[in-house]
Amino acid sequence: MAWWLIKPQNQVHEIILQCLPSFINWEIWKFRCSYKYDGIRSTTNRVIDQITMLMQRTLAAQFTTINFSPPFPNIFHVVERIRSQLSIIPVSWKSPDIGKYKLNVDCCCKGNPGSAGAGGILRDHNGHMIMAFASYLGECSCNYAEIQAIKIGLKWCLDNGFGNLIMESDSLLTMHMINGNISTSWLLKDEINKIQAMKAKGHIQFNHIFREGNSTADLLANLAEFKKYNAFFTSAINLPMQIISTLKNVKKGGPNFRIRVRKNTFIFDPG
Q1: Disulfide: which of 59, 168, 182, 225 matches 176 by Cβ 3.0-4.6 Å?
Q2: Do 245 and 200 reside in the same domain of the chain?
Q3: The RNase H type-1 domain covers which part of the protein (predicted)?
Q4: Is residue 262 part of a domain?
Q5: Residue 74 is part of which domain span?
Q6: What confidence category does residue 70 fall into, taking pLDDT thresholds of 50, 70 and 90?
Q7: Are 138 and 244 members of one domain?
């Protein structure tokens, strides 16, 4: 049991932890069957070599940029000294063109399903806030909460004459559903149809944005879920201080950094 609880040091180590027990059992089973049915007795070293070969070929196929040369201690020497390479990308909110407006929305869901809140903010080409909202949604799924955030924001914009609009969400799945790039679950079909009907009432473009560029909407959604309330703001001075601070940073063009582990890309640390 302890084997399965080991925390892997990197992606290569994780593959070894997952595959090695199966390779060991497979080679022992082959050894047993060869002896029982064919009378062929392999040596322990032969079994170890076969396990090493299986492991080496698996790693070489998965991680083509790393040299995994037998024997096994050499493989472990490499695995212990490689570090995953990070991808660090600055992500900033981009202002719309003059005459257009941008609505950013997000949701906060404590579980799936779970207690959820929706948040959003409408800004002009100078980054000035026109409207922000925080809305508690009760218990629902993450996808449903994201869709409700879009509906709440769009309804306010259309009701108040802001139909020349770019709508941004960090839910790529929801954006694909609204833009018709993927089929929609029957549970969400009616809600997506309502959004598409709203889209027809204005000049509305639906775009995906990385979560790091959607920080103000994210804070508003978390506020709605935490306080369990509904509020619309038409003046930035009425926003909570943390949101005002984030809003100012975004307006100045200050980036947030998107940090991800690069898949199958490593740095060798000789120690």
Answers
A1: 182
A2: yes
A3: 97-226
A4: no
A5: 2-88
A6: confident
A7: yes
